[in-house]
Write a structure and sequence with these properties.
By secondary structure, the protein is an alpha+beta fold. Helices cover 46% and strands 19% of the residues. Helix 1 crosses helix 2, helix 1 packs across helix 3 and helix 4 packs antiparallel against helix 8.
Length: 200
Amino acid sequence: METLTHEIAAHAARLVVEEGLDYGAAKRRAQKSLGAPPRTALPDNDLMEAEVRAYLQLFHGDTQPAELAALRRLALVWMQRLAEFRPHIAGAVWHGTATRLSDIYLQLFCDDPKSAEIALMDNRVAYDAQSITGFNGATVEALSFSAPAPELGEAIGVHLMIHDHDDLRGALKPGSNGRAPRGDARALERRMAEAEEAAP
């Protein structure tokens, strides 16, 4: 059974990288593609991330670092524009597994939940709004729009999750793996500098 879970993770990792699926959708599609029984244990996100990193290294080692750097620079631009809302970045761009198919996920911590929407309208940014489940299990508003990424020659999806200012305290606790699940602009800049130093 453990072998099958790893097989699902490897298959799902390919879907994440090559088709830009999120982990949940990739796991379900991989389970179905492999004909695994419905009760098969699906891989957890730590295993998924390990498989995604392995796949990237094997098949996209020459292109992924530059794509990730471009996405991080674009994310930083929007974090600076939205600085008053205490933006924190999460997801593949933060964790370092993003490719040009990945979207940017920013979590904003607002005193007034409508203020971020007003800021987008003031800047003439066309966006879609929907309700999703936030990192703390509560329902939050998500504002989604496309931002041009000149370095990549295409538009990238940017998603702003609107959290209450008080949620920021719980947001900074390390995850089960001991790593920060999100970071502010300064933390992102540090990761960018580290990646640049580590580049061959």
